[in-house]
Fold these 4 entries.
Entry 1:
Amino acid sequence: MSTAATPVTVTVTGAAGQIAYSLLFRIAAGDAFGDRPVAFRLLEIPDARRAAEGVAMELSDSAFPLVDSITVTDDPDEGFAGADAVFLVGAKPRGKGEERSDLLIGNGKIFGPQGQAIARNASPDVRVLVVGNPANTNAAILDAHAGLAAGQVTAMTRLDHNRALAQLAEKLGTSTTRLTNMTVWGNHSSTQFPDVAELRLDGEPVAGSLEQTWVDEDFIPRVAQRGGEIIEVRGSSSAASAASSAVDHMHDWFNGTPQGDWVSVALRSDGSYGIPEGLFASFPCRSVDGRWEIVQGLELDERQQERIRTTADELASELDTVREAGML
Ligand code: NAX
């Protein structure tokens, strides 16, 4: 049984990258795992290992009371040894002139072997969050190789969820903390469906006060394309907000979601809401006793079903691409 003094072993891949540069320090501050000490395992590719060692030096220099140990490695077996929580941030970016299929396959070559290394080395109860893009399909590939139970491997749509809450809070002139029951369905891509149908303000349904044209023409595209907007304005892709959402995801997984609320999590579909089994799609999920459960019983109208079909179709075609390449 774990106590406050038992370290949680946390693996972060892509440790020399820009998301990790924020994520590691948030974890070290206790934002994901509370007052449990953290044994960090930072996994990088050989070319970036030295830079990851520099990040580890800074982590050490910060003298966080909760940092138990820091191991930097480019060996996946060492990187995943005893892992209780894994943040898979490292991924291959799209190269010049590459198609989306090249990106899917290039990443399949990373996530298949990482799944096998997790199976060999991590704790049997490990909780895995894939952040690296294309996150949903990377998670599907990893899941096929890791042999873990349904729900142990997840992909991140919490940033989309948080972006949606921020847009809604601004529109309604309120704060994100008063808004609940938001859902992002499907793929972490431009086909995602940020769905306000069940949205509540202080526990009361509020969707009726949002004009449908604003939802369809402003809100949904803005959330779905927010990543591109950040690149345009900041000059590089979302990093601190991605790290913050990864912390939120793992925090809720370990600590539970607030009573009555849910969050958006991409995990292996069990066929709920017509999303074919096996696709890694984002659903409304509650964290109960350390496990994600898909919220059941929501009623979907034709318009919602159509948007969910569109994003599920995209996920199915991504999976076909990697299956044809022999990666599943
Ligand atoms: P960076 O390019 O800054 O860092 C990525 C790091 O991963 C590099 O240091 C690289 O050496 C490392 N890496 C590559 N292959 C690896 C492997 N096999 N094992 C270990 N490390 C490996 O990217 P950053 O901005 O940190 O973004 C990381 C990933 O997050 C990207 O794929 C990005 O597209 C994705 N994102 C996902 C988001 C989401 O909501 N799911 C949002 C933010 C972000 O765009």
Entry 2:
Amino acid sequence: MFEPVLDKLKEARKIVFVTGAGMSQESGIPTFRGKNGLWRNYDPMKIATIDAFYENPKLVWEWYEDRRRNIVAAQPNPGHNAIAKLERYKEVVVLTQNIDGLHQRAGSTKVLELHGSIIRIKCTVCSFQDYVVSSFDVLPPICKCGKILRPDVVWFGEPLPQDVWTEAIAYANSCDVMIIAGTSLLVSPANTLPLYAKQNNALLIEINPEDTMMSVDMNLTIRETCSNIIPKLTEIFSKLN
Ligand code: NAD
């Protein structure tokens, strides 16, 4: 499976993963798009925008609380675990669009959360930020300053945290291999990361059971799931060492 790019993989020093919702699908967390994606049942513009939030904060909070409970109960899958284990052999950075924290729970030490985290909250007005440790008695929860708290996630139309994004571009610009796993590459600007890697002549590998808009730009596309394939990649590196 990796034979066509084995030499480049052996030489690689810095490996960057760009991951999306498909990475956690085998942990039981639904994706947004693709087969069985969440957006088949919900209209994103009614849930994941600041306008939707101000229009009906209780509804948006209920949706996020359901997702958060599902995420907290989920476990990292063999794909997450294999990425964490790869750090024994290579410099590994994970640039994730996921908000579920599963890469960190698997043991990955360098994870940049491009779209925030569902297990954090922040105030809509003041600078208050915290982790969510239990369910809220009343939704929407209220900050000490009296304003509404919101999930610390990036909604459609909102900018990414600038420091995180700048660092992500620097990693994409300087990697030898980029592995794009479980993302439809439809959400901007995260979907531009492979272009930065390509400029650096990095090897691009896509792991996704379905085609994406950028599949044609990849050096290798593997039409398989993350938990089936990423452990095989880590095994290759373990044998080289
Ligand atoms: P997406 O839902 O748009 O696309 C998911 C992709 O994963 C699809 O291309 C699908 O074919 C692929 N896929 C499904 N199962 C897979 C598997 N087992 N292995 C490999 N690939 C698989 O997701 P996206 O590209 O991440 O973008 C949508 C937004 O969704 C992001 O902003 C992200 O924050 C948010 N999101 C996050 C989570 C999470 O944190 N787990 C879950 C849902 C959505």
Entry 3:
Amino acid sequence: MTSDQPIILAIESSCDDTSAAILKGKQVLSNVVATQEIHKEFGGVVPELASRAHQKNIIPVVDAALKKACIDKADIDGIAFTSGPGLLGSLLVGVSFAKSFSMALGVPLMEVNHMEAHILAHLIQDGSPTPEFPFLCLTVSGGHTQLVVVSSAFEMEVIGETIDDAAGEAFDKVAKIMGLPYPGGPLIDKYAKLGDPNAFSFPHPKVGKLEFSFSGLKTAVLYFLQKEVKQNPNFVAERLNDICASVQKTILDILFKKIDNAVIATGIKRVAIAGGVSANSELRSRLQAQSTKGRAVFNPAFEYCTDNAAMIGVAGYHKYIAKMFVDITITANARMKI
Ligand code: KG4
Ligand code: ZN
């Protein structure tokens, strides 16, 4: 170890962002993210193109992270990497890079679950308040929607999840129906700010108290728009802001109802959100407003919501301290669970 705190290199390549970060303990020295623009024209992530882009980006991104942090590769004490869940071809690029680099440097390897890392982003030391254990976390990303009881950095229990689409997928699919490019979530967020959230109403799913379902919403929006466009071909363009605000309100009402149910079921009043959808401005302000309900609420820093390697680094740091290392026989696991 070159200092009192270990220097961790972290690698994330589970979907369409190639990212590398350098952490000193729980502090982020650099966090470089190369977002793959190529998928925009296809309306979604194309796995084969994603793995090729990771292959192209990985070395320049790691190099940039080292330079930005003013760290020499000889100073690295351990390497953390995402082993799953995600796209297999994408994961393999990060896993293979991490294994080879750890062998070359003679430093230990820490494997990290991507969804656990989204949650552990709350433990990054950046001056913002850190939730005490146990806390409840709603993880909302492009592939997952889960309610998790987080008892320690290593003990997490999923108490509810989606039975079909994830919340991020709901944003992206509705956006696609309206002809918006991928990923549609940030665009719906942007247009919703200018619209009336009560302009249109969409049904809530009938599922268990801690379960989610978003595939019905996508279909409801599709049928609603088909009907309206028949009468007015310019309906989507004319009412885009109102549609976005109404769809967003429906998704957020569902999420907050489930948070309420989870608080009642567990008695835990510390509530955090994580994952790409936690970047949503309305979700963040509605969560903030819940502090008046006697809850302690935690929004992740904006840069740690969508996929990034800093969150992999802080998860890896905890494993480094606990000496939870893996050897180079480790491989990617596309369906890894919390
Ligand atoms: O966590 P993430 O970067 O990747 C996965 O692990 O899936 O999440 C990506 C998801 C996408 O569905 C994207 O549309 C959504 O997060 N997202 C948002 C916002 N920013 C990203 N959804 C709603 N509002 C946003 N501001
Ligand atoms: Zn993610």
Entry 4:
Amino acid sequence: MRRCIELAQQGQGSVSPNPMVGAVVVYHHQIVAEGWHQVFGGPHAEPNALALLPSGVPLHDCTLYVNLEPCSHVGKTPPCSRLLIDKNIGKVVIGSTDPNPKVNGRGIAMLREAGISVETGILKDQCDALNKRFFTYQNLKRPYIVLKWACSNDGFMAPANRERVQISGEEARVMLHRWRAEEDAILIGATTAIMDKPLLDTRLAPGKNPLRVVLDPNLRAPQLPGDFQTLIMNTRLGKNEGNFEWIKMRQDFAVADVLEILYNRQLLSLMVEGGAETLHRFLAGGFVDEIRVIRSKKLRMQTGVEGPKISMPLIKSEETNDDTIEYYGKEIVTCG
Ligand code: AOF
Ligand code: ZN
């Protein structure tokens, strides 16, 4: 199952809104074939693994391990459970059950009804953590939400005049770009868009650029630099111009309205990069799964815009040369 997780992770960044899935076939205690879901719309992990099975290996004497319940629905590909039944697999070992209402236990039931021995819940916590974004999206009908901010050693995000001050060091900036590549969307408020004019891209790390989302009810902010996909949530106009899309919202629209739009666009995850007011709105609504704080080791401000109070437990912290990276969450946030 650990190998399944490793394989699955190779789909990171190219399978969303699908989950990351890896599968291995074991014959006489040895892995004889492996596969993973590589790209959205492409074949699932199980057919990819079975396609590489060496000839002469009898599948009815093999066990297939997979970190997510094999699917039971006809989607972009035929159901994996059907394939495993037709190929006469000996046994199936599963990590997480699939919360997608099209599957949700039916894959396991199909296999069992066909007389196949099925074991479930193996390394379940790690398998659930691997697909925390997909699970949150399916179960809560909203993207998985990471709140992120950088602050001085004494907890200030910006000086009182809101001028841009470089808080985090080089290593933390590279880390942030890696984080961005892991999420489907990045969101900021109008004040941050006006004061920082951020690119919100991933130029310092490999990986795709996430969709950019700006909350700008009264269209106060100039257009963000860079020609990347961008949504501007506002109350004035709806229009499309190249990569930029203005979405007209009702007056006094709430965070929940924004999340509903992101959900309908099948965005599994969102990183909120500030500023303080936007972070507060997410926290006040309880729309948070994880918080990451980049805290400077040396910089002290004494006054300014304070970072939000955190009521989640500290899960771990990491040191870079200039900063301490604090991770807060409800549960285990790693899947290693
Ligand atoms: C599996 N194996 O490797 C994956 C599964 O649109 P489709 O047809 O690709 O189906 C997507 C759904 O299938 C996805 O939402 C999830 O429920 C399941 N993903 N299932 O048996 C896999 N990636
Ligand atoms: Zn499948």
